[in-house]
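Q: what sequence does this backbone want?
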């Protein structure tokens, strides 16, 4: 998969891949306009939405309604480094959600590919290459 990252102005940085564009920006205090989430917020949202797609799939496979189900994602950061030390996901279910499926709902969320990549991170290679412009 290839993504093209460009700089449309201000503190905005966009990622283009396939037919999609993910817009990011910085808050005003960071030199941006706050017109889009920060890249880190998009990353964090990918954790919760990835877990959510597995929860959705679990419910669909069993014919369980998803009305009233939501995931609350909370972060705990190191006060000195500012780095996230813990990501907590609380899967909220309505009172009539079958008790017998609750542990499996957790297991399905744990299958999230984004989470698995964080647990076994890829190697990064960053370099420059000169290209001719038209």
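A:
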């Amino acid at each position: 998969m290839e993504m093209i990252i460009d700089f449309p102005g201000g503190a905005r940085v966009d990622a283009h891949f396939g037919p999609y564009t993910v817009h990011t920006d910085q808050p005003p205090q960071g030199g941006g306009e706050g017109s889009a989430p920060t890249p880190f917020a998009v990353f964090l949202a990918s954790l919760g939405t990835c877990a959510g797609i597995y929860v959705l799939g679990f419910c669909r496979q069993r014919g369980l309604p998803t009305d009233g189900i939501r995931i609350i994602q909370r972060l705990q950061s190191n006060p000195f480094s500012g780095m996230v030390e813990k990501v907590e996901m609380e899967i909220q279910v309505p009172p009539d959600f079958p008790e017998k499926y609750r542990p499996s709902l957790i297991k399905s969320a744990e299958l999230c590919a984004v989470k698995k990549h964080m647990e076994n991170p890829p190697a990064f290679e960053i370099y420059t290459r000169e290209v001719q412009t038209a």
